[in-house]
Amino acid sequence: MADDPYAILGVAKSATEADIRRAFRKLAKELHPDLNPTNRVGTEERFKKLSSAYELLSDPQKRRAFDRGEIDSRGEPRRDGYRRYAGGAARGARAGARTGFEEFDVGDVFSDIFGGTRSGRAGARSGFSVKGPDVRYTLEIDFLEAASGTKKRVTLPEGGVLDLSIPPGVSDAQVLRLKGKGAAGFGAADRGDALVEVRVRPHAQFQRSNDDILLEVPISIDEAVLGAKIEVPTIGGRVQLSIPKGTNSGRVFRLKGKGIKCAGRSEAGDQLVTVRIVLPDTIDDSLAYFFSEWRQKNGYDPGRG
Question: Could you list the residue range(s) of the whole structural domain that residue 221 is in?
Fold first, then answer.
């Protein structure tokens, strides 16, 4: 295929990220128009295709979508793969968790070509321009920060900073795009974008299921039998929960609107509280005598078959 990005870069489909990077570096040096003044038109076109192929294959999410046939070599969704690609992009799902805040920098490729000069200035001399590559970061935040939204200022490896507004309800592995915060453009072209993958640290009590919050709460045997009002935590603070008489272990109570409220949505999810009956560590004589008498007087069958 003429526009196959693997063919353009001269790598196999099994190529690693490092293989793709090395291939791009090598071909960029060979094809850059400033280094081929006698055949500027031909090399400009090939260099544009090379840059486009590299942009697609250096993005793990786009690369997987291309391999599955969901997008074409320009990164555009194919008609028959649109639903799958759009769904995957909305979830921001990506393989391979990273920790910390890391940069995938491609600026040194152009620095190598021009002996340390900035690629933007070199491109301006030739009139050739290519949008700057996107750069990738991974940011780890707390569960409650993800639920309510937060602001983060992160210092980059080269000394710059990124001010990030994390929207309420951001999910684990979701990718946030910061327009114009990527690598410098080539020539007069715009900078690329910064793609920030958010990793959400687990919480000691809460779990997330879509926009609902799941929580398990222990109750005593007397609370289960007699009923009680207990205090339970939510992501917005502690609230009262009424336990009716005769509550079984495993019963689920729904706290309406106490779940995740994502940015742009009018309603929040719910909190689902599962109660578990927990017996005391020591069964004293009075408790044992009471249940012994109760068992003799009542032929209760829990239905074990």
Answer: 207-297
